[in-house]
TrEMBL record:
Residues 36-110 form the GIY-YIG domain. InterPro entries: GIY-YIG_endonuc (IPR000305), GIY-YIG_endonuc_sf (IPR035901), GIY-YIG_UvrC_Cho (IPR047296), UvrABC_protein_C (IPR050066). Keywords: DNA damage, DNA excision, DNA repair, Endonuclease, Excision nuclease, Hydrolase, Nuclease, SOS response. The keyword DNA damage applies. One of its GO terms (biological process) is nucleotide-excision repair. This is Excinuclease cho. It comes from Pseudoduganella flava.
Length: 282
């Protein structure tokens, strides 16, 4: 926070909030219409293009907080209207926000702007293998660990885990080697000898899977699509989901291809697996 010395020699703080004025170029009617319920809101520019999309359990409260934030003056200066969509609850707002951001790519949204080409670590024949979502259906495949944006990130995680769990650098694919030759970790007593045959491949694979287990990617726990039912302020709504993929609120007229979606997985994993949601199989 900036400070200055006033006319009588006192050191005072120049609080930017005190210098802020309401953006009167945004029509008051769209502000007055904002509900105090869950949903998403869209800041639109002069052409009607969404430049920022957000979500909240209280749309009105959250939007007003934007209007009182001097640090967002650039976004507010380009805004000419604010629209909203109510949802039946917080999960619906999170899912709808992710879908809209991906669809419109708003310039002031720094997250959820792109569908990632995700990869994961699979343990096959006691060894780790990097697999990609375009080749493997993550939502319907067991034995996957971690979700990464790049192959490099997955390998770096493997390297860290190998060091902590005293795993073999050759068996984990971090280091190239030849049969019977000790890896570098074995030479400094940080490997139990899977590279030299002192530890079996099966035992090493079990230790690898155990070290990765905290990153396990959970398989879609239903046989097909479900509806997550939420209700708030008199609005009852069903969010349709399949294979960790959000399908919207209306049952599609024809079968949709439900591909694993990283953002939806992150939103739903904990509440769905914990139970307590109102679920209707479709």
């Amino acid at each position: 926070m900036r400070t200055h010395v006033n006319s009588v020699g006192l050191l005072v703080c120049a609080d930017p909030v005190l210098q802020f004025s309401y953006p009167d170029h945004i029509p008051r009617d769209c502000i007055d219409a904002l509900p105090s319920h869950p949903g998403v809101y869209l800041f639109r520019d002069e052409a009607g293009t969404p430049i920022y999309i957000g979500k909240s359990v209280n749309i009105r409260h959250r939007v007003l907080s934007h209007l009182r934030t001097p640090e967002e003056s650039q976004m507010l200066g380009r805004t000419r209207r604010i629209d909203f969509e109510r949802t039946g609850g917080e999960l619906g707002a999170l899912l709808r926000e992710a879908m809209l951001i991906r669809e419109h790519q708003p310039v002031f949204n720094s997250k959820l702007r792109r569908q990632r080409d995700m990869c994961s670590i699979a343990v096959r024949a006691h060894r780790p293998e990097i697999v990609f979502a375009k080749e493997v259906d993550f939502g319907r495949t067991d034995g996957l660990f971690g979700l990464f944006g790049t192959r490099k990130a997955a390998l770096e995680t493997l390297r860290d885990i190998a060091q902590v769990a005293n795993l073999c650098a050759v068996m984990t694919g971090i280091e190239k080697g030849s049969p019977g030759r000790p890896c570098f970790a074995r030479q400094i007593a940080r490997c139990r000898g899977a590279c030299t045959g002192e530890e079996s491949a099966a035992d090493h694979g079990d230790r690898l899977a155990g070290a990765l287990d905290h990153m396990r990617v959970h398989r879609w726990p239903y046989d097909g699509p479900i509806a997550i039912v939420e209700e708030s302020g008199g609005l009852r709504q069903k969010q349709l989901v399949d294979n960790w993929c959000y399908l919207g609120t209306a049952k599609p007229r024809r079968k949709q291809v439900a591909r694993f979606d990283f953002d939806v997985y992150q939103i739903l994993k904990r509440p769905l697996l914990a139970g307590g949601l109102t679920i209707e199989p479709l």
